[in-house]
Amino acid sequence: MSLRASLARLSRARPDELAAVSWSCVYFFSVLAALYVLRPARETLGVARVENLPWMYTGTLVFTIAANPLFSLLVTHYSRRRFIPFVYRFCQLSLIVFFVLATQLLQDGLPRVAAAFFIWVSVFNLFAVSLFWGFMADIYSAEQGRRLFAFIGAGGTLGAIFGSLLTSTLAARLGTENLLLLAVGLFEVAILAVRRLVRLASIDATATAQPMAGSRVDPPSDAPPRGDRPVSTLAGTLAGIRDTVASPYLLAICVSMICYTVGSTFVYFQQAGVVKHSSIDEAARTAYFARIDMLVNAFALASQSTLSGRIITRLGIGRSLVVLPALTAFGFVGLAAWPTLALLFWFQVLRRATDFAVARPARETLFTVVTRDEKYKAKSLIDTFVYRGGDALGAWAYQGLTQLTHGGRAAAIAALPLMAVWAVLGLWLGSRQVRRADRTATVGAPIPGL
Fold first, then answer.
1. Poorest-confidence range of 122-131, 210-219, 410-419?
2. Structure confidence by residue, pLDDT tens digits, 336-369
3. Rounded to whole angstroms, how far apart are CA atoms 296 and 31?
4. Which residues touch 288 (CB under 8 Å, ≥6 apart)?
5. Which of 183, 310, 326, 409 is deepest in the core (most CB within 10 A)?
6. How many other CB atoms are found less than 10 A from the CB of residue 159?
7. Domains assigned to the chain
8. Beta-bridge mates of residue 207
9. Is 375 exposed, middle or buried (0-12, 13-18, 19+ CB in 10 A)?
10. Composition of the chain by helix, strand, coil, percent to 5
11. CA of 73: how far to CAs of 67, 94, 329, in Å?
């Protein structure tokens, strides 16, 4: 069987779609590879300045809130043909600036550069993936998306594995700062892929585009996005807040998300403390974080096609939502008793892999039974503001607990009641999701406010 035939069989793409699918995979592969080169560098810099982490998390929240309307404004007013390469060029320029500052500044200036880099990577990570999927939604029809997006997503997961492997292999040889230049090169590949996809989609800046090969809907346009896509504006945010407060179901999802992010932040601080007090140097720390990312993404790649659906089907939504808080609670107990690098490594791998395979799909399933407005407005609020707000809350709570108890072990134990609340909420949400699904099947539309 030829390579072309094998690719068509794996991706479920028609012959006239193969080129676009291939370049879409290259695009997502290169973006996630770059991000997973930057992530371990960010973690290393965060560990080195653990006392500043609450401020870094707060800065991430502030800049996410500020960047959301600006990003939406740019997407609304400029064509993707021009806007997407501009975003990645800006990213490349920023990385070069960080590289120069990290290598040329005196020692007393490095903490400020490290904090800025931590915030920059945390904010850009959200928008880079969102930008990719927005572009995919523009150039593929709904029917094509159902067939092809899982395969394209797997291409991104392979990129994450490649980026992690690259970092774990080269960190000791190149040094953490030089990894930034690797990311610059990977983003250049992403720009090349975008330009090829623009040509394949026949998008022109001055005319309406022709449909992509095999499309069954109106042709994609290079004009600013229209219609019912959510736009992060002040009005949309206020509407999301109103929808969330008015619905016990959405409010429970919101509190559950806060439990998740606060727990994740506590785990991150535990990680920072254990790694900082270990004997490994900066390059070895970067490689350590990259190996965690590599194993997590390898597990995610396997679960995308086999494990996730079977586990959630067997357990149900409620019990699936309990798995992650239960595992996190056991991990906190273990770290309180044996705060070692080895235990931390496998706790992080198992926890993040479980999130990929079970918790995140189950969490997203909760939104299948809400109204259309709630999906676009309330979900956007929860996925951005509530998510980053939980990060900041967890950072300051952890610092306060460690100052009161003079150590991270007591803070880990103090997180156990929160994990219990999170688990109970998961069970409640699972039962309500089933009730809403049953009512939707009966009356034909989600029941708001249940």
1. 210-219
2. 888 888 999 999 999 988 888 888 878 878 887 8
3. 17
4. 40, 275, 280, 341, 345
5. 183
6. 26
7. 12-214 (1.20.1250.20), 232-441 (1.20.1250.20)
8. 204
9. middle
10. 85, 0, 15
11. 10, 21, 41
